[in-house]
Amino acid sequence: MIGLVLAAGAGRRLRPYTDAVPKTLVPVDGTTTILDVCLRNLAAVGLDRVVVVVGYARQAVEVLRPTLEQRYGIDLELVVNPHAEDRNNAYSLWTAREHLREGVLLVNGDTVHPPSVEQTLLAAHDPDGARVLLALDTDKELADEEMKVSVDDRGRLARITKLMSPAEATGEYIGVSLIEPGAAEPLTDALRSTWERDPGLYYEDGYQEYADRGRPVRAVSLQPTTWVEVDDHADLARARDVACRC
After folding, report:
1. Taking a C-beta distance cutoff of 8 angstroms, is the pair 244, 29 a contact?
2. Over 123-137, what HEC string results?
3. Structure pTM?
């Protein structure tokens, strides 16, 4: 099992912080960045290899690579998404497809949360399995922008989309998932079909494609958890409060 961080995004709504660095390198606690929080969490659950998908302003991450490896005791590999500015993150995850067969704990590079999220997913993991496990917040009050999830009566993913009515949703996907080794090949094909259909789609749309093909995607409910996805300046203010308590 390795860690995987999707960190290719520009984060234009966070300018001027992201004029010269990607969103993942915006500080949330002194000099601690969002990427620091992601790597710290992955190291905390025993993962010593992490792949980071980079794109916009990738040189800023490349310069920090030796420091981050030493700071967190990890081997850090960078995978370049050459279409970070004109394709969405379904393509970003697809660019890391060669690593999925190892099993990955995937973290969005703009999410600040405690390591208990990773711990919960790993506790539900089957090393020989072919599932995708989604970290689900079932306590948060939902609105239109959230990545909402509904599950069927077997606990499997029925829908994952921002377009769902909050009343139909079981909870919100918080941007952390576990892809078991056996899911690698069929998920890679589902992701390819997704971004080829529309390069603006999310990797969560790839998860939907995977589920629609009869493959197992399960939501793992979290204990009440304080977390934030950092999209704009208001989110950043909340992330700084969350990071101080992680």
Report:
1. yes
2. HCCCCCCCCEEEEEE
3. 0.94
Q: How far apart are CA 25 and CA 152, in angstroms?
A: 38
Contact predicate 185/101, CB 8 Å: yes
Among 227, 231, 120, residue whose Cα is nearest residue 172: 227
Q: Shortest CA distance to 107 belongs to which of 96, 116, 119, 118?
A: 118
Q: 151 — phi, psi (to 5°)?
A: -120, 155
**CB under 8 Å to 176, separation ≥6 — which residues?**
105, 106, 107, 108, 111, 113, 117, 118, 121, 135
User: CA 64 → CA 4, 25, 81, 143, 156, distances in Å?
Assistant: 17, 10, 18, 36, 39
Residue that is written with structure tokens 């390198």 in the block:
25
Q: Distance of CA 93 to CAs 74, 81, 189, 235, Å?
A: 21, 9, 12, 24
Residues 195-229: tens digit of each pLDDT: 999 999 999 999 999 999 999 999 999 988 889 88
DSSP 54: E
